[in-house]
Amino acid sequence: MNGQTSSTNWGCIAGVAVVIAVICSLLAIPMAVSAVTTDPHEWVREHYTHVSGDDPDEGPVVYSSSDDVDSVLAAVVAGTRPDERQRGSATTTSLSSPTGADPQDVHYLRYDDDWLICVYPSGGQTQIEVTEFDEGYRRHAGHVGPWYHHRGSSFRGGGGGYGK
Predict the structure, then answer these.
(1) Cα dist. 80→24, 30, 41, 61 in Å?
(2) Do residues 128 and 101 lie in contact, with contact meaning Cβ atoms separated by under 8 Å?
């Protein structure tokens, strides 16, 4: 009987261990996801030096880093997970960039309908510009025009017809 009791105890211990491992993994997944999907403005504020601006609804809030553009861009993308990314192109060079940087050097990160972050070189530093999406779109419309179309889903059109 001792052998049977011993194997039953080990079976219970193994079962409890499996349940604990499943619970721990279920708790770890949301924590890992929330560590990466924090508010983009908050994340930038915690990692870079504030330069100017106070309210991203009113205009850009600018932060700075001594790291190169590619390093800053990689860190911001990894820390905030943008919904879309764009880089200025040669076709937009005729438009002056509100950042003062060559439009080809500006990287645009969109976060749903909430935020627009621009990462670009400026005077030997890297600037990180955070704006509320609508304000940022108005500011950079010539460079991020295609993004605005995703916001049109609420438009129902004019005239008669179903689905309005």
Answers:
(1) 24, 15, 9, 17
(2) no
pLDDT tens readout for residues 124-143:
999 999 998 888 777 776 76
**pTM: predicted TM-score of the whole model, two decimal places:** 0.63
pLDDT digits 0-9 by tens, 10-22: 767 766 777 776 6
**What tens digit of pLDDT does each residue of 55-78 get?**
888 888 999 999 999 999 999 999
Inter-residue contact 104 to 69 (CB < 8 Å): no
| Cα–Cα distance list, 124 to 68, 71, 105 (Å) | 8, 14, 13
β-strand 84-87 against 107-111: which pairing, if any?
antiparallel
